[in-house]
Amino acid sequence: MTKRLSKNEITPNFSTADLKDSIQSPDLYHGKKWMLSFYRYASCAMCNLREHQLTLEYGSWEEKGFRILGVFESSADSIQQNVGKQNAPYPIIPNPDLSLYQTYSLDSS
User: Fold this and answer.
1) Does residue 91 fall inside a structural domain?
2) In DSSP terms, which residues pair with 36 in a beta bridge?
């Protein structure tokens, strides 16, 4: 079952390292406009296409104060091999144990 947050609903909290070993948490984005974007495996062609689209558009969104966090149900090595070539300008979180997916009641595909 997928749970979509309602407007002004507080997101479940987490604290985890991204690909660059920086800690990411919703607390860092409190009061800001941001999106937590979940993907399947790093080798998924459609997920890579979406990641590419977000990477291209991110500069104009960032200028308006909008931020993105990407989450893949893959290891850091797999993300580096498949998604890392795109040099996403925003944090990407490896989550092979699916803990963030579970926190947000998302099913693995």
Assistant:
1) yes
2) 69
